[in-house]
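Q: Joint fold for the lines below.
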Amino acid sequence: MTDDASYKALENLGAAPLWRFYGNLFPAEPRSRAVPHSWSWQDLRPHLLHFSRTLSLDEAERRVLMLVNPGLIDPPATVNTLYAGLQIILPGETAQAHRHTSNAFRFILEGTGAWTTVNGERVHMAPGDLLLTPGWHWHDHTHQGDAPMIWLDALDYPLVNALEAGFYEQYPQRLQPVTRPDDAGSRQFLHGRLTPAWLTPDGPSSPVTRYTWEETARALDAVADTAEGSDVDGIVLEYTNPWTGGPVMPTIGCRVQRLRPGFHGAGRRHTASTIFNVVRGEGATVVDGVRLDWSEHDTFAVPGWASYRHLNTSASQDAVLFSYSDEPVMRSLGLYRTEASDPGA
Amino acid sequence: MTDDASYKALENLGAAPLWRFYGNLFPAEPRSRAVPHSWSWQDLRPHLLHFSRTLSLDEAERRVLMLVNPGLIDPPATVNTLYAGLQIILPGETAQAHRHTSNAFRFILEGTGAWTTVNGERVHMAPGDLLLTPGWHWHDHTHQGDAPMIWLDALDYPLVNALEAGFYEQYPQRLQPVTRPDDAGSRQFLHGRLTPAWLTPDGPSSPVTRYTWEETARALDAVADTAEGSDVDGIVLEYTNPWTGGPVMPTIGCRVQRLRPGFHGAGRRHTASTIFNVVRGEGATVVDGVRLDWSEHDTFAVPGWASYRHLNTSASQDAVLFSYSDEPVMRSLGLYRTEASDPGA
Amino acid sequence: MTDDASYKALENLGAAPLWRFYGNLFPAEPRSRAVPHSWSWQDLRPHLLHFSRTLSLDEAERRVLMLVNPGLIDPPATVNTLYAGLQIILPGETAQAHRHTSNAFRFILEGTGAWTTVNGERVHMAPGDLLLTPGWHWHDHTHQGDAPMIWLDALDYPLVNALEAGFYEQYPQRLQPVTRPDDAGSRQFLHGRLTPAWLTPDGPSSPVTRYTWEETARALDAVADTAEGSDVDGIVLEYTNPWTGGPVMPTIGCRVQRLRPGFHGAGRRHTASTIFNVVRGEGATVVDGVRLDWSEHDTFAVPGWASYRHLNTSASQDAVLFSYSDEPVMRSLGLYRTEASDPGA
Amino acid sequence: MTDDASYKALENLGAAPLWRFYGNLFPAEPRSRAVPHSWSWQDLRPHLLHFSRTLSLDEAERRVLMLVNPGLIDPPATVNTLYAGLQIILPGETAQAHRHTSNAFRFILEGTGAWTTVNGERVHMAPGDLLLTPGWHWHDHTHQGDAPMIWLDALDYPLVNALEAGFYEQYPQRLQPVTRPDDAGSRQFLHGRLTPAWLTPDGPSSPVTRYTWEETARALDAVADTAEGSDVDGIVLEYTNPWTGGPVMPTIGCRVQRLRPGFHGAGRRHTASTIFNVVRGEGATVVDGVRLDWSEHDTFAVPGWASYRHLNTSASQDAVLFSYSDEPVMRSLGLYRTEASDPGA
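A: Joint structure:
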């Protein structure tokens, strides 16, 4: 038998020589398919408003512009494991109840008067609020305000689909019945450190349905005059699951950080992939030599193992960033790694 | 050899017949040496003030009236594993820095203008605040207000001494140096659910040095109109360690609960021992047939496995109780047990 | 009001001045009431045999000689939190089924042909076997061999009683029915590292009902020619709960250790209290200046925070010690502390 | 602006309408790209031997035939997250030392006299042994036996690469130095339930470098006459990490199972993907209507959420299967789901 004959036979037997694939399968270090990229709120908002006029929520189960990373076109994703989109809903509209194993959250950008009903609880929205929809929770939206409501939509479906673990189900009616007091999850756990002693955890995710911006702003203010926090990230707070002290969902960690005027962060990289949304202020993040300038409500992506550095370009105003990443995944699976690293530029 | 000769020989050999001790060692159910008991704030406060005039803090390392359970005189304790005392400190005074393996906390009853310095951090006091001093943390007190400062002092020394694990050390100076921003622990963890991402746990206890009453009151208010909570305990919130979601210290769990006007709790008992302090309101707790009436700042003890029922005797005012227990110990060691049980009366 | 009048009034109010008790409540370091002590197998065995002839198991629920520490006479205990006794049962006898919240185990010294039935499973005994009876498991004994059966009986009742968490119940019949295959717990978990995937934990304790000496000896032999292990304890192996990798029961940790010929251990102390039983060999343990010489089947006590050093006095034979301690309690409650320390002598 | 103009503009802005992708991103249930498939030992072994003659280990870093699932050609994988290959090494050969973040193991099929050196410890191989190489552990191979050595090579690189977390490094010399006693990890933890008390965990994976077949066979024999175990999987044992009781590595769980003669398993499916290798016996596994017949050393793949049923087609002989899966990943991330399900056929 010649090598060629053997190679041919192996192909038919469903086998292949490792030595011909080796370098591709075992790279010296990760090189994400995602690229550093930003999405402009000013540019995208008009299109959202356009489709809110031309496309009904009966046609589109959800009216969302996906923020597609140029390196992750098909299937579409924002970073390797996570997705970001901009969703709009109009006064008087409702969005169909459904559930999926993907974990999701909303981070509110504009508008008031809407709520998401999550497993029977109405959860209201205001700018800066973080609303959780953990995996397999029924959720539908209703808007009774008087102006469009826009939020950042976040999901881990790229991860869940890569792991081939996605399930999806529509609720038999358009809206689920309300069975709990409004915003109960948020109010019962107003402070994660004062937890209702008559409850017990009912899953791996946080029971706080809504982390209001009011509370988040108070937490940021409370540490305003203490040490600078991290030299990489400034004052950076992790939203936590009050039952465990860990991340809000097993696959997604959420943070908010304040960069003081003139902040020039240290460079770093880690294996987690991160998506940022600008709460307020102006600045730039340098990622692997690419400078991403940002201002209010812009979204930008820092791929895993890309080096990054945050800059607050204002000499007088704080900048505040909201972000989410797959760091909990990397830690659970023993794959988290981080080191100081200069992004250049 | 006769039995008697054998019994005598055994005594000399350091052995004893189990069959002569059996019933005492294996009781059918626990019967605490502690008894249901209450301590009157109105009665005790004058004595505190008296000794604040006649006894200096150089003579007494701490000026504290121990609340001694009639069943636990020697060594003195309030319930089986825990201690409560009333401590007073005058304007201009300082109390010597020391540390001990016993876990401790202060629950403030009266006064402002004082602080405890805990491992280099000044922690300020106001009525209703809960200040932690976890085991082996240096702590000293300073009072610069203009009226006496009184708090409930809590320690687990009865447990630690029963386990023969107590260590104690005096600081070489009267006061330790301040090395951290004032109230940093409290402000960094204002919300347990938003935790500083640049910190990591440095021990088994909560890093929240001060749980202010302001925050506690907000948490209670936030659940005011939702379900009644527990039929035994009303709206009951557990103070938690933000790193773990568990109790604030490994041996002591702290709670605050609101009993709505006219609340008549269900009867229950559990193996944990509990000490209560009345934040506001008037009512009674029936314990194993003994009725303990209480009003503001009174302290009362519910021994382990004693049946109890809480009553708010006001038809118009809430009652609010602060409490602490050894439930974390019982749970860690697999000894926690609870059941519905009528205290009678 | 004078001080004296105030002291008197306080007594009636159930309060006491901390400043008069301070030093006793906060010792500089632990000083166990237990003393270093040993119990001779050669001396005690005849008395066991004596009472096996003069006392029936109908009179004594269990026929056990308690090994009472001279410092812990009432209530009787062997070290602060733990108890050891020597139990004997004769061919043809049975011992009444009961259960208690105290965790217990048997370490077999002499005889074959008996079994303990634990929650419906017959667990057989042979010298060197460790048989667990975790808290609240029904257990009764039956002996069908042809010579007396003697074992070391271990319980945590001093701890459970100090925590006022002891419950006890007699089974309505003398013996419980057998509902599981013989020694199933032991055989299903023959290797803790190969666990039955169709089972799940049903409590905080190990499901291994019997750790046979045969398996223990194999484990000791397997590390015979590798490094010496600990300079304090030689080759020391911890019996573990295969579901957690932790101690076999939440309150008691069990170990076996081999001291090579001529072993002269480093001195150490820790807050855990320990009871040893000699499996084979001859040697001595120096505890706080007291030399305890030991040989086969002797039992000896090392109180918490006492300094100790192990010696194998044979130049040619290994010594093997079995031991158990409350280290899991100290660790769970954040009270474990250890340091190098010379016991003198 | 028309819809078309808006769609075109969005494309340039890196955004896309979710409503055009919806169904693909949120499937009703997982449908693995992998297909049920088996690989024949009898067919593949001659090709392994062929390349052992024509390809040196200087040319191929490792001489391995990858078992490529027909649904997962590029990049090649055996099931969605895991890889299996057949590796051969000849007497006198060595394989270059390297390390990678992918977790790996070897399951030995044929030969003796070789060892893998893992972080300084020589780990020897014999048929049926499971040898771990947790992520980022240096490893190289040496064969000094007198016949070819063949093993099943397992890696989680499909998962690690999908998560973009792969690192790889070559050791500067061909072989690393030996710094620990031979097979120390295996011998120190011969029983997971008797663990060396002088060691502490140094990572998330099992310290047992080698789970010998001798020990595995003893564990299987020990439960031979007890209950049948699972109606789906027969007597099925999980290899565990003795420090935690959990899976051997954070991304891969390993099991061995015995199907008694004539075993006809119940049907089931779960979100984990599994690869099987036949230790001995003959039978078939029906997967989503496809019957995979198997005999000794064959490998077969059961994709996630595929229904399966195991059959032992012999009326007199046991069948024994070794398997590994990504169940630990699914459980850590909250994505594990299972249900009874008939595979048909």
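Q: Anything notable?
A: The helical segments of chain C are 3-13, 22-25, 41-54, 157-162, 184-188, 213-222, 327-332. Chain C has a mean pLDDT of 94.
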